[in-house]
Amino acid sequence: MPDLCHDQNVNNDATSPSRTAGSQTLARGLAILRLVTEAADGLSPAEVAAAADVHRTVAYRILNTLCDAQMLHRGSDGRYRGAAGLLPLAAAGHQHLRTTGLPLLREAADELGITVSLLVREANIAVALAVVSPRHGTYHVAFSEGSHHPITQGAAGLALQAAEPERATDSEQIRAVRELGYAQTFGQVEENMHGLAVPLVLGAGQPFACLNAITVREQQAADSAKTLQRIAAELTRLVHI
């Protein structure tokens, strides 16, 4: 049986119409997927068409394909939002970092009695790569892996910006996070929630990342700083082994 990847009858010219058309369709699909998932309340087909600069028919076709793949779903309001099919992809991303971090997150969550997460920066979005809730205690805050919010919001957003190399244009707030070693905010991502996040400086080839604790108690968030900093140092060490 011939190897189709090397069959001489296959046109391997990168500029052939079929390859160009396929690449363009894929690029549009990925762009639309990103547009929809980054929108706080999803997007309508008309909004997708306008934002992606495509005809509405093309937008519908791509949206329906993404729905068939369970990457998006169409709500009763006609707006498209991220679907459960994105979660395995989020879990697969940065797999080494996630796998290495999970036992340490469990340790921190149980020690602190609050939910602890590992977030990475994807473009201008903070994405939860791993989320661990404490195994003991009467209640805790919970959210899903793959959850995301702009890096301009919350303790995690500040910590992710502080994990980047220093720039002359850095705000005083980002510089303060680097000096303190953590960021603390209230109600910026979720109402009435206190967050504390520690930057992870993982080095070349690794994403900008942070550890984040979230709770309804301000003092509990503040008290998590030393534990998260210890866990961050251990995770950084293990990632480079």
UniProtKB/TrEMBL annotation:
Which terms are listed as keywords in the entry?
DNA-binding, Transcription, Transcription regulation
Task: Quote the SUPFAM superfamilies the UniProt record gives.
Answer: GAF domain-like (SSF55781), Winged helix' DNA-binding domain (SSF46785)
Output compositional bias ranges, type Polar residues.
Answer: 8-21
Q: Which SMART domains match?
A: HTH_ICLR (SM00346)
The answer to whether UniProt assigns keyword Nucleus to this entry is no
Entries under Pfam families matching the protein: HTH_IclR
HTH iclR-type domain location: 23-84
Gene3D superfamilies named among the record's database cross-references: 3.30.450.40, Winged helix-like DNA-binding domain superfamily/Winged helix DNA-binding domain
Residue segments, region Disordered: 1-21
Report the InterPro entries cross-referenced here.
Answer: GAF-like_dom_sf, HTH_MetabolicPath_Reg, Tscrpt_reg_IclR_N, WH-like_DNA-bd_sf, WH_DNA-bd_sf
- What are the recorded GO MF terms, alphabetically? DNA binding
* This protein's name: DNA-binding IclR family transcriptional regulator
| Source organism per UniProt | Glutamicibacter mysorens
